[in-house]
Structure formats: C-alpha cells, structure tokens
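Continuing the batch. This is chain 6 of the set; chains 1 through 5 are on the previous pages. Same settings as before, nothing changed between runs. Recording input and output for traceability.
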Amino acid sequence: MALGKQIAYSAGFFGISLYSQAFATFGFFFYVDHLQASADLIGLGMGIQGVLNALLNPLVGHISDRTRTRFGRRVPYILFGSIPFAIAFVFIWMPFVHHTATALFWYFLTSVFLYDVMFVLVVLNWTALFPEMYPTLRERAGVSAWRQGFGILGMILGVAFPPILYGAFGWTAMAVLFGAIGLVTMLVSLYGIRERPNPQPQAERGVPILRALRLTFVNRSFVPYVIASFFVQFPFVLIPAVMPFFTKYVLRATHDETTILLGTLFVTALPFVYVWSAITRRTGARAAMMAAAAVFGVGLIPFAFVRTFTTAWIAMAPLGAALAGLIVLLDVLISDVIDEDEMRSGARREGMYYGVQGFIIRFGVTLQAIVMSQVFTRTGYVPGRIHQAPQVLAGMHAMLSAVPMGSILIALVALYLYPLHGRRLEGVVQFRTARDAELAADTLLAGQSLVSHST
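Output for chain 6:
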C-alpha cells in the first residue's frame, strides 16, 4: 500500500489516543478533585462501566466479523460512528446536573458508558483492519511505528496540554477542541483504509458467538498474549491517572511543570517507535517485546524515591523509550495470533480477537479505579489539601513504582510462555505468504475476467 495511505490510516490513532489519554489521565481528577465528587462513587462508576464495556467488546467484534456491506465489514462503523463518538467524549466534561455526590455519580456513569459504546464501535473496527491490510512483519513493524507515532502525538496533546487548556479556558472548551480534532483525524483515516472483500468463507459466517468465544480462548498463543497485554497496559492507565495527583501533592509542581513532566514521557517515546520497529525486524516481536518490558520495569524504580520536579523529569526519559517498544509490539504480536488462527480455522476473525482483548483490557480501567480509590480512601486523602498526610504521599509513590512493576513482572512471565516464535511462527509466515499469493492471483484473474467481459 502507498505510503500516503499508510500515513492517512495511521493518523486515526491521533484522535483515538487524544480521547483515551485525556480521559484516562484527567477523568478521575476532574470529577474527584475539581468537582469534588466522592472518590468511592467515581471509582465504583468506573468499575461498573468497565464491566459493561468489557462485555460489549466481544459482542461488537463478533458482529463486525459477520457484517457484509458494499462498503466492507469495518468501514460503516467508522464512517457513521465518528461524529457520535466525538460528541460523547465532549459530554463527559460538561456535566449539566447539580454537583452533588449522587448526581455526579449517575452523570459520570451515563456519559462514560455512552462514550465507551462509541469507542468500541469505532476503535475496534479501525484497529481490526491492521492485520488484514498489512500481512508481512516488515509492513506491520513499519505501519505500527507510524500508528504509534501518531498515537504518541495524541497522548502528548491529551496528557500534557489539558492543564494549560482547562487552566486558561475551562474544561468544556478543552473538551470541544479535543472532540473536533479527534473527529477530523478519524475521517482522514478513512482515506487510507482498504478492505479485502469477503475474506471469510460462507460457512464461517454462521458461527454462534459462544462457540466463537470458545475458539478464541482455547487458542494457546492468544491466552499468554492477552495476559501479557493486560499487565503491560495496566500501567498505561494507572500511571497517567496518578500523575496529576503526584505532581500536585508530592512534587508541588505548577500547571506548566505538570505539562512538561507528562509531555516528556511521550516526547521521548516518539523517536523510539522507529527504533523498536527496526529492532523488531531483526530480533522478532517476542524477543523485542520482552526487552521493552524489562526496560520499562527497571525505569519505574526511581519513582519510589523522587521528591523533586527535576529528578522526576530525568526519570521520565528511559520510561518513555521503553513505552515506545511496548505500544509498537502489541500490534505485531496480536496480528501473528490472528494469522495462526486463520491457518487453523480458515477464517479471519480480527473483530473477535480484538473484541476479546478489549473485554480483558477494559478490566485494567476497573483495576485502576479500584487501586486508586482504595489507596486514597485508606490513606486519608483529602481533595484540595496541599499538605497531605505522609501515608497519602507514600501511596502515590507506590502507585507509580511498586504496583506497575509487579504488573510488568507478570507480563514478562506470560511473554516467556508465549509460544508463537521460532519454528511455530515460521509455519504461520509460510501460510501467510501462500495465502497472499493466492489472493493476488484471484484478484488478477477477476480483473482479467472483467476486462474480457467489457470487451
């Protein structure tokens, strides 16, 4: 596929990351610290919507795999869902209810659930196109680098700029601006999308959802992958959500310093997505993923001790370098799993695999809410109090060091058990090469037939 179309498709990840990182980093902070809602109730709300959203992921994935339209399986969801997706994001940040604990809880639960429904419909289908459009390791490593490059730019805007924007213009203005930017990038991504027509045999379209789920969970490559994916991505939602509290109460940082600190993580990561892409092509996805996870885990150690803005800023650089590898390689690993499933079953089921992954990963948001609400409640956190108790500060240190380090350790064990490497992966690559050659021949034959009929 032409480079311009690769870039256009990848640009969609800018808006996706902008929305998800802004919410993951500042959603809890906005409701608990700014609106002074109950930390326990908002934590409960995040837990409830996480469970509902998790159940929605495999259902949408299954429906998407079975969808047949003249526009393709995935495109209609992206085309017609992008505008409601942007509107739902904006509504999270403009509660029009009385600012009581109960009213804010129900508004939060409703608005975030609607946002998550649209997130799944649009993002799952956009993501599921990746393994289908880019079949080789070289293509996947290259396009994943472009995707994650745009994603990191979205993270930078979504994580580093809100303190500046809501400080100057308010939370609603920030949300409207971000909503408009995200919508534009999702529409641009449609230019770069190319779907294979009817990639599944007719017999596979009638597989019931429960059987499709069973086939996914008994895949011996997918299970260790998704465990590793969960425990790698849990720190991605925990660390940004804790960071505004950490910078405000531990580092005593200003809004501008908070922006610099958060931005450093992703600015550092940006050039390293291309470094990890090159490493992946040389060593393979599993070995590169284990190296990136190990570096990330070691990079968390300083956050058990940092007390100043300068030391925290320095500690962000190696963390960002490792983060780049993790986000690039998740795409590549799950693509190999999907190819192996096609080799065994004869069906392309990207939607179900991404749906089940989303089902499991969404519990990371639930776990993040549980960890934060429990730590804040049990340590005696008081919203807005500049001088928090020592145990509160210790809890914030733990949520940026010990907790995510334990998560990364579990991920490393799962990656060690991940079987899709060596000869087993070589078999999948050979199948993929033969399949693509067959598809190319069929396409050429169809084109010649069309020309002969027209003449």
